[in-house]
Amino acid sequence: MNFNSKYHLTLLPALLLVLPLSAQQLVTDTSKTLPLTIAQVWQKAEVNSKAVRIKQLRITSSQEAIKDAKAERLPEININGEYARVSNMPVYENGLFSSPSQFPVLHTTYTVGAEAYLNIYNGNKVNLEIDARKNESNIAGEQKKLTISETKLHAAAYYLDMQRSLIFKDLLLKDIAAQEKQLLQIKTLQKNGVVLKSDVLRAELKLSKQKLSLTQLDNDLAIANQKLNILIGLPDEQRVDPVEAVQLDSVLLKPYSTYLADAANGAYQVKISEQETALRELKLKSVKANVMPKVGLFAAYNYSYPQIQFYPYSASIYGLGLAGVKASFSPSSFYHNYHKAKVARLELESQEIEHAQTEDVVRQQVNEAWLRYKEALNRVDVTQTNVKQATENRRIVSNTYFNQLSLITDLLDADTQLLQTRFDLAAAKIAAQLQYYQLQNVTGKL
C-alpha cells in the first residue's frame, strides 16, 4: 500500500533533525498525552525554540550596541600621572672626548593631571554610527520574526503529519474491522462450497497486510511526535494529541494580487533587505565623512614638579590648566579616502541589486505558494468525488461477489480503492492546510 509515500509528496520537507528514540516508547506512553491546538503549539515553539532564542540574544546584543554608539557622544576623560628619575647632565664644552662639566639638575620629576575632550563635529560620524547600529537592531528584529514564522511552519508540518497518521490509523482500524466481518462471510461461503479456498487465503493475506500497516503508522506518528517535541521544548517521551481538526472551509482563497501586496508590505526577507540597503547607505556616508574637519572642546589641568616649562625655572610644584577649542583637518584624507569611498559606493550598488533580486524571489515564492494552494484545494474537491465513486463501486462489487457474479480479486480491489481514496482525501486536506501556512509564511502573515 502506498498511501504514505503519496502523502509525503504533498508535504513540505521537514528541515529539522530528529534524535534517535524508540518509537514504541512514544506510542505506548499514553498516560502522558497532552492535547494541543495548533495555536498552543505555536506559542510553545515561539518560547522554547532554540533558533528563536538565539535570534532574541542577537536583538539584545544589537540594543547594547546602540547604547555603546550613543556613549560616543560623552566626553573623553583621561587621568594621567608620571614619575621619573632624571640622570646627571654632562656638558661637553671642549668636545665629546674631553672631560665634561656637570650641569646641576633636579633628579626627581613627576606630573599628575587630567584632561577631557568633547567632540562637537567630526563629519556627523557619531550620529551615522548610531543610525547604523539601529539598522542592525532592526535587521535582528526582522530576522527573529522570520525565524518565528519558519518555526511555526515546521511545527505545523509536524502537527499535521501527526494528524495525518492518526486519521490514517482510524481509517485503517475501521477498514480492518470491516475486512474481518467480510472474511467471516467469505469463510461461510467457502464452507458451503460456494467459493474456493483461495478466496479465503486472499482475504486473509489482505487483512494481514492491513494490520502490518498499523505498525508503520505508529512509527510515523512517533517520529513526528518527537520532532514536534524537540521544536516546542517538550520531553521526548511526551505524547502530544493534535486536537484541532483541519478546517479548510474557513480559509478562503484570495486573489493573487492581494497576497502579492501583503508580501510587498510584510515579507520578512524584503524588510531585511531594505534595512541592509539602508545600512550600506550609512556606511557610504560614514566613509565620506572621513574628509570632514574635526572640532571639539578640550580642557586639561596638571600638577608638575619641578617647574621647568617657563622661565625662570623653579624647584617647586606648580599647576597649569588649559581649555579651549581644538580643530583639525587632514588634506591627505582626500586621496587616502578616495578608494574607500569607491568601495562603499560599489557595495551599495550591489546591495540595491540584491534587494531587487530578493523582491523577485519573494514574488516568485508567493506565486508558487498561491498556485500550489489553489491546486491543493482543487485536489480536495477531486478526492471527495473519488471517495463517493469508490464507495458506490465497492457496494456494487460487494453485491455482485456475494451473488457469485464477480471474482474475489474484484472485491479486494474495490476495498483497496475505497481505502486509498479515503487516505487521499485525508492527505489532500492536510496538504492543503500546510500549503496555506506556507502561503502565510512567504507573505509575512504566519
UniProtKB/TrEMBL annotation:
Signal peptide start-end: 1-23
Keyword Signal part of the UniProt annotation: yes
Subcellular location(s) per record: Cell outer membrane
Keyword flag Transmembrane: yes
InterPro entries referenced in this protein's UniProt entry, alphabetically: OMP_efflux, TolC-like
Lineage: superkingdom: Bacteria
Keyword set, alphabetical order: Cell outer membrane, Membrane, Signal, Transmembrane, Transmembrane beta strand, Transport
SUPFAM superfamilies: Outer membrane efflux proteins (OEP)
Gene3D superfamilies according to UniProt: Outer membrane efflux proteins (OEP)
Family: Belongs to the outer membrane factor (OMF) (TC 1.B.17) family.
Name under which the protein is recorded: TolC family protein
Native source organism of the sequence: Mucilaginibacter dorajii
